[in-house]
Amino acid sequence: MLSVAWAPLYAHPLPENHRFPMLKYELLPEQLLREGIITEADLFEPRPLAETEILRTHDAEYYRRLVAGQLTRQEERATGFPWSEQLIRREVTILDGTVECARRALLHGIALNIAGGTHHAFADRGEGFCLLNDQAVAANYLLAHAPGVRTILIVDLDVHQGNGTAALFQHEPRVFTFSMHGARNYPHRKEQSDLDLPLADGTDDAAYLQLLAATLPRLLDEVQPDFVFYLAGVDVLATDKLGHLSLTREGCRRRDELVLRLCRQHALPVVVCMGGGYSVRIADIVEAHANTFRLAAELFG
């Protein structure tokens, strides 16, 4: 059984002319249900996360202004989103989805959020379509509420560096941040993760998978995490408009298999969030994300 977070709010945060990148939040659960990878019983609908949990990670004044719609025009432009009450409800619901996934992963080994991976959000600001940092909030939730979770590894394989996540945990030794991303891609000013592996434009399946296979097992041995958050962005695909890497869909699937198989072998609970995906064809995005769920069902089912 897979626990999968999904809410109708995931799919509709933007005006119609901005909605293409968001279609995956509607199409992905439909695909998974149609194939029988998940059932309706596997889906749970998150609710807005309590403010007290959000403020373990985010600056109180920033959060107050965000909720009240009082960001400056410059701050709003940096997020990429026009402000609306619906957008804020979506963001705090995504947070709860990842937090609840963390609770369920402790019980069942894995849980997946059909959203999340908002790794460009800092404590006091949003950037790059990220307003609040769901994996950071969930990591801090576990450190506060789960006595058996003393060390957390965040594996960020979105094509963009997890700059917000890196900054949030720069002085937190209990959270190790690992980001493998395009060297010349957004954000242009990178933060320092505990381990950054910048990749050249055009990096293909062989080079990518070789580097990941040489790195992640060593990290698990060195960090000895009790819990893993995995950001499985599919903007690493060669078809992606913003990614500049050259992975095939099969290469992306093998990436996910490597990460999830290692978590399974080490008996590490893992939460998976979808992250980015901006291929021209929506089918390429949905199919690549669906592979992540297929593997989760195969390895943890």
Automatic annotation (TrEMBL):
* GO BP terms: epigenetic regulation of gene expression
In this chain the Histone deacetylase domain maps to 22-290
Q: Which Pfam families match?
A: Hist_deacetyl
A GO molecular function annotation here is:
histone deacetylase activity
Alphabetical keyword list: Hydrolase
Q: Which family does it belong to?
A: Belongs to the histone deacetylase family.
Q: What is the protein named?
A: Histone deacetylase
Q: Which organism is it from?
A: Hymenobacter aquaticus
